[in-house]
Amino acid sequence: MTFGVFSRETGHEQVVFCQDPPTGLKAIIAIYSTALGPALGGTRFYPYRDESDALDDVLALSKGMAYKNALAGLDLGGGKAVIIGDPATVKSEALLRAYGRFVESLDGRYITACDVGTYVADMDVVARECRFVTGRSPDNGGAGDSSVLTAFGVFQAMRASAEHRWGSPDLAGRRVGVAGVGKVGHVLTGHLVEAGARVVISDVSGAATARTKAAYPDVTVSDDLIGTPLDIFAPCALGNALNDETVPALRAEIVCGGANNQLAHAGIDKLLDERGILYAPDYLVNAGGVIQVSDELHGFDFARAKRKATAIFDTTKAVFALADAEGVPPATAADRLAERRMAEVGRLRSILTH
User: Fold this and answer.
1) Which residues contact 40 (CB under 8 A, 6 or more apart)?
2) R_g of the chain, CA atoms, integer Å
């Protein structure tokens, strides 16, 4: 096994390149901040075009995790990992265990979990070589599939967004477009249908849309959610859904979804604000998953974790209130709240206790 440390002006504390040729493992682990505690974030297994694309993704995702954990009130820093390759063809027990050895080598600075391309069963394999793993199966004392509370948190943020925009959190009769009905989008669709919303779904995978349509026959399927008149648009697939092409064409009053890194670049949040579209910041909205897996660190209790995820409703309202008070977009307000907590609480760790 070999590993190296990458350094450039990104604000990250540490970036580790991991390689184990016999298993085909190529991974990058990025730790943005440990100001509030160990850096917690999932492992994404994805066929990136090249290492540069993988690096860009892991740097953005790990920073997002630091802000997400801070805003969620967790005593955890932010990190993320990516494994380069198609999980359908290269994932193996040996590769996952090799990856676990690299995570273990960081001695608790980074705690991993599931993300795109990795699942509960994979975390159980990683844990055979590593102590710092969450998102494990219930049989192994874990929280199971974190998409359960991720989707629940998105639903709570939607209710808070609706209250801010329309004066009521009730989603009955509201037309909601869910872009991506994989792990999170599928569960979210169930919450919306139960709440009486009119749900429109889309996904690049025909199998995913068929599964959701079979479970919830009243939903409709669209190939163009951006151009569809909606009350709420919920991006729940990969990042960069909100960009220079999609935002001008978007026909929704609210954006509130589970995907990470929805804004393609700085300034997109201002463009949404100028168009009068209320944006619920992604790392605020999708924090239910990290709340769920972080509860494993205290001996998992689903009811306790769900209560914590319910607080996303109040946090979303607080972000909108600060945005209104300071005359800034909600994304800026969320950043300010997260940065304030990292600075104020993180500073306390410099106080020696023994």
Assistant:
1) 65, 69, 74, 76, 77, 78, 79, 110, 111, 113, 134, 290, 293, 294
2) 20
Phi, psi (rounded to 5 degrees) for 77: -85, -165
Separation of first and last alpha carbons in the chain: 37
What pLDDT, in 10s, does the model give residues 130-188?
A: 999 999 999 999 998 888 999 999 999 999 999 999 999 999 999 999 999 998 999 99
Q: What is the pTM of this model?
A: 0.89
DSSP characters for 166-193?
A: HS----TT-EEEEE--SHHHHHHHHHHH
Structural domains in the chain, sorted by start: 2-63+78-138 (3.40.50.10860), 147-341 (3.40.50.720)
Transcribe 109-172 into DSSP letters: SEEB-B-TT--HHHHHHHTTS-S-B-S--GGGT----THHHHHHHHHHHHHHHHHHHHS----T
Structure token pair of residue 345: 């609480």
What SS3 class is residue 335? Answer: helix
| pLDDT tens for each residue of 228-264 | 999 999 999 877 899 999 999 999 999 999 998 899 9
Residue scoring higher pLDDT (322 or 145): 322
Residue 314 neighbours by CB under 8 Å, 6+ apart: 160
DSSP assignment string, 203-217: -S-HHHHHHHHHH-T
d(CA 154, CA 102): 32
Query: Residue 5: what pLDDT?
Result: 42
pLDDT at residue number 8? 54
* Tokens 């909600």 sit on residue: 330
Nearest by Cα to 60 from 17, 106, 7, 12:
12
CB 182 within 8 A of CB 239: no
Catalytic residues, by residue number, are: 80
